[in-house]
């Protein structure tokens, strides 16, 4: 099974193309059109919840104003302060916001597992702008995990395979070659060198992490720099000259 890169990087999405569901309520996607890509969540809708399982919506209701969780009240105060400042600066901010139509207000989502029609419903405070993948009446499940595919097991296996393939590619790079494209770096080429231990190929020794200073290798340089800075190293050594002295 092909697992998209965004899933391997932690942004889970179902294998099957599913419409994005928006919660009902005033001020929430008021101009939403029902399409293959987006829909409105209603009682009876089936959604994918945080555990990658199917849940059935029983009801969605407004949370009483005096029962808003503290972090929602704090966020509302920050938002209205920002809105007032922008309006005072002369910017067109539209109608003054209200708690009853604020798109990030808390709603009460009542739901239960789709395969347990007699289970006790769960009541969850949910942000009104939160979206969910909406399932059709007939949907796929992993036989072993009972999760909406790709399940955790499949994603973990694909992640391990990707890491092993990346390690094999790195180990095949000869000393002095670009860690991004794996091609040699000659003395006449501009390059970016990272001093200190080689974080991708420690066996090559210190001061050996080098990349071409060209667009094709920018993503690799960016990835290495992020890891390099996380390790607390000093500023990047200037790019090497086009010609050796």
TrEMBL record:
- Please give the name of this protein: Uncharacterized protein
Q: Which organism is it from?
A: Streptomyces rectiviolaceus
